[in-house]
């Protein structure tokens, strides 16, 4: 019921993961259609980059304000941190606080004075400001590290490498928030280099019981996970896309004109192939560098035809090999018979 600093950074990570999900599905897919010259009507969706900026902006983000409070001289409390947030974030549409002097929240009795609320992509979450400063400092005093490093037990010594006198750093250790932000940035950079597959899990009820579906809970999750926008993009778009060269290489055996070799541009070869297979024109579109197939059943049909053709080719190869083997054996036997007959006539 009470969300503090720990839940705040967990939700920040969830926001970043949702952002990369949007980037690699909704945004990237629609931009690809435009790049490839495919006729496309843009589908609107909520981009949570504005919420990520509210949290992680280097100047006006909540984490930056928290670090500034932890590092500045003078009396620092959770209340002074909340005051700073109210000054900097008061006009932000996803930030809410009773102390922000904003008329929208002055009479909001569901929002205590010692809390602030963020409208995340998954809904509004209220955070108790108490403990934010202390938890963000996460200070491990140098004398404690040095004492542990001098321990005779090898494991304890290994756990406190910063206590080594040769590696003493007089700089203030990084805050918990900045460390977590750096870790999330590294994770995002790593994910951007991959081709991730997403599995969205829907919680059917809050009781963890079988065969019970709470319609309101399920619909709420479908909305905030962005599944509605995903379905709209998928239904309006194309299920499969592939560059012309690998597409022609994979399916060229299905057409006499492209098998075994196609002399010419790969796009022309794919066009000849699809015309030969009599695939309806509404089932595919030609982009600048890729072929786009609308329905999975068209792709399944191509795969079934390819599988059957490979079996036919395997049978043909087997037939030719058996014929060659039998003919070779026959010619050898014929040659031997001639030699034996000639020697027999000479003997007789």
TrEMBL record:
- Where the record annotates domain Myosin motor, the positions are 1-307
What keywords appear on the UniProt entry?
Actin-binding, ATP-binding, Motor protein, Myosin, Nucleotide-binding
**GO annotation (BP), single:** endocytosis
Record's GO cellular component terms: brush border; cytoplasm; microvillus; myosin complex; plasma membrane
Q: Where is this region: Actin-binding?
A: 184-206
A GO MF annotation of the entry reads: actin filament binding
Task: Show the SMART domains listed in the entry.
Answer: MYSc
Q: Which domain of life is it from?
A: Eukaryota
Q: Name one Pfam family in it.
A: Myosin_head
Family assignment from sequence similarity:
Belongs to the TRAFAC class myosin-kinesin ATPase superfamily. Myosin family.
What is the official name of this protein in its record? MYO1B protein
Lineage of producing organism: Eukaryota, Metazoa, Chordata, Craniata, Vertebrata
